[in-house]
Write a structure and sequence with these properties.
The complex is a heterodimer of chains A (113) and B (114). By secondary structure, chain A is mainly β. Chain A contains no helices and eleven strands. In chain A, the strands form two sheets. In chain A, strands 2, 4, 5, 9, 10 and 11 form a six-stranded mixed beta sheet that branches. A five-stranded antiparallel beta sheet of chain A has the order 1-3-8-7-6, with no helix packed on it. Chain B has no helices and eleven strands. Classes of the chains: A mainly beta (113), B mainly beta (114).
Chain lengths: 113, 114
């Protein structure tokens, strides 16, 4: 079973739409969670960390459900510039792999005018 | 500003050649990583290192080796390149202490093995 599973999409939405991405993780002991963004032909970059209480950064809201081992990202009022691949990421806290991040395969989003 | 640099953006090598991919980070990070990224497969970890001269196998280490002689530099070596190693290779670094620290990626090396 993969450490992090997410729907690859693609999601195609019009400008102004609200879109949500979900992912699940398998290690119940995981402590840190992130969303990374990867533009076409570029390297991944941190979009936001995900905190237990949920957190918001402008149009982006991240939620964590530890009981269900589920992470979500909500994008409101989508912009053309939001078109990218969104990677769900979980930190490992196990022994020698301490500090290793586990990446989902990514969800592709295209926002059209 | 954290910077992770990789020695080449594009590389073309022949089957059987020995290939060196170099990565340098300037933020004194303990952890460094090598990934490959292929369409539909996402990022796959090849090797990582949490200190000088230390290395750990990732999920797909076969056909690769690594070297970390200095803290800022992490090299990926393809001992005898094969066509199935054609891929985008991404290096990354991260602080070890503090699980919430961001992982920074280099711009990637697109390797083609013919």
């Amino acid at each position: 079973r993969k450490e992090v599973e997410q729907d690859p999409g693609p999601f195609n939405v019009p400008e102004g739409a609200t879109v949500a991405f979900n992912c699940t993780y398998s290690n119940s002991a995981s402590q840190s969670f992130f969303w990374y963004r990867q533009d076409c032909r570029k390297e991944p970059k941190l979009l936001m960390s995900v905190y237990s209480s949920g957190n918001e950064d402008g149009r982006f809201t991240a939620q964590l459900n530890r009981a269900s081992q589920y992470i979500s990202l909500l994008i409101r009022d989508s912009k053309l510039s939001d078109s990218a691949t969104y990677l769900c990421v979980v930190n490992s806290d196990r022994g020698s792999t301490l500090g290793r991040l586990y990446f989902g395969r990514g969800t592709q989003l295209t926002v059209w005018p | 500003d954290v910077k992770v640099t990789q020695s080449s953006r594009y590389l073309v090598k022949r089957t059987g050649e020995k290939v060196f991919l170099e990565c340098v980070q300037d933020m004194d990070h303990e952890n460094m990583f090598w990934y490959r990224q292929d369409p539909g497969l996402g990022l796959r970890l090849i090797y990582f290192s949490y200190d000088v001269k230390m290395k750990e196998k990732g999920d797909i280490p076969e056909g690769y080796s690594v070297s970390r002689e200095k803290k800022e530099r992490f090299s990926l070596i393809l001992e005898s390149a094969s066509t199935n190693q054609t891929s985008m290779y991404l290096c990354a670094s991260r602080e070890r202490q503090g699980a919430t620290h961001e992982q920074y990626f280099g711009p990637g090396t697109r390797l083609t093995v013919t």
